[in-house]
Amino acid sequence: MIAIIDYDAGNIRSVENALLSLGMENVVTDDPDVIRSADRVILPGVGAFGDAMKKLADRGLTEVIREVAAERPFLGICLGLQLLFEESEETPGVPGLGILPGKVVRIPEGGGRKIPHIGWNDLRFPKESKLFAGVPEGSYVYFVHSYYLQAGCAEDVAATTEYGVTIHAAVSRGKLCACQFHPEKSGDVGMQILTNFANL
After folding, report:
1. 101: cis peptide before it, omega within 30°?
2. FRET pair for 180, CA 20 to 30 Å: which of 52, 63, 89, 173?
């Protein structure tokens, strides 16, 4: 069973539907006991960093997330990736979950770039990761974001993309994984990534 953490933050239903299309049993929940009992956990999200951290705290989920992320396969998606890190320029002074070292910063203006960055970008893989098994380098995935990760540990970075700057597009450390892009909206490539997560 895959638990999708529900904290009123965006793309939850699209993740649920993608898993169902792959035949993966899942539950959308904010119940700490259900999350703790799941085989795998997904933290999705679209929205503002500070608001999301408040919603997680209000539901008593911050420690639950830290706990399960250390124990079983865990996947952060979009804002769900950003929340795993220490801080974000989007909401100065609001600490993130701090599960991984690094910070989230705004995509710089200029060079004809539109912000938010919305669209398809190709991936490069600086290291081998089970999350991307069977996914060719150069595959395109779908992004929607104005802020991006600068990981504090280079060895955590599983995928990068270029959008005026080098964006740390995915991270993996053991069974903890996260993507800035939306695998549930990334066609066959995204379905392969979700399948790989289910097989961790």
Report:
1. no
2. 63
pLDDT in tens, 156-176: 999 999 999 999 999 999 999
- Is 117 an annotated catalytic residue? no
Listed in order, strand segments (DSSP E) in 44-101 are 74-77, 87-88
- Domains of the chain (ranges plus CATH)? 2-198 (3.40.50.880)
Report pLDDT digits (tens) over 94-118: 999 999 999 999 999 988 889 999 9
Q: Could you tell me if 22 and 194 are in contact, meaning their C-beta atoms sit under 8 angstroms apart?
A: yes
Q: Given 78, 87, 117, 177, which residue is catalytic?
A: 78
What are 36-57's pLDDT values in tens digits?
999 999 999 988 999 999 999 9
Catalytic residue among 117, 145, 168, 182: 182
Annotated active-site residue 16? The verdict is: no
